[in-house]
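Title: Comparing notes on inverse folding

I've been comparing how different people in this forum approach sequence design from structure. To keep things fair, I'm posting one structure and asking everyone to reply with a full sequence. Here's the target:
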C-alpha cells in the first residue's frame, strides 16, 4: 500500500492529534490524586523495556527478516563491557572497532 503526499500528511496530522489527546487524558483522568504504588512501578519499568525492544529489533533485523551480523556482535561486545563496568566511551569505541573489523573481514 502506497500513500500519496496528501494522505501521508493527513495520517501524520491524525497521529499528532491522537497523541495530544492521549497525553491530555492522563492528567484529566487522574486529576490531583496520586497514582497507586504499583502504577509507579509499571511506569518506571516501561522506558527500559521499550528501549530494549527498540535496540533488539534494530540490531537483530535486516529489512523484513531477522539476522545477526557485525553490528549484532558489536552491540554484544559493548553490553559485555558495560557489565564489566568499563566506561561508556570505551565501550562505544571498542564496539565500533569490532564492528568495523568484522565488516571488513566478511
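Reply #1:
Here's my take.
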Amino acid at each position: 500500500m502506497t500513500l500519496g503526499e496528501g494522505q501521508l500528511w493527513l495520517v501524520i496530522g491524525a497521529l499528532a492529534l491522537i497523541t495530544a489527546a492521549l497525553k491530555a487524558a492522563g492528567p484529566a483522568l487522574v486529576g490531583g490524586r496520586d497514582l497507586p504504588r504499583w502504577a509507579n512501578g509499571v511506569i518506571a519499568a516501561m522506558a527500559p523495556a521499550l528501549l530494549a525492544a527498540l535496540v533488539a529489533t534494530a540490531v537483530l533485523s535486516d529489512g523484513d527478516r531477522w539476522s545477526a551480523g557485525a553490528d549484532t556482535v558489536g552491540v554484544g561486545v559493548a553490553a559485555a563491557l558495560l557489565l564489566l563496568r568499563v566506561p561508556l566511551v570505551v565501550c562505544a569505541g571498542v564496539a565500533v572497532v569490532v564492528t568495523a573489523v568484522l565488516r571488513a573481514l566478511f
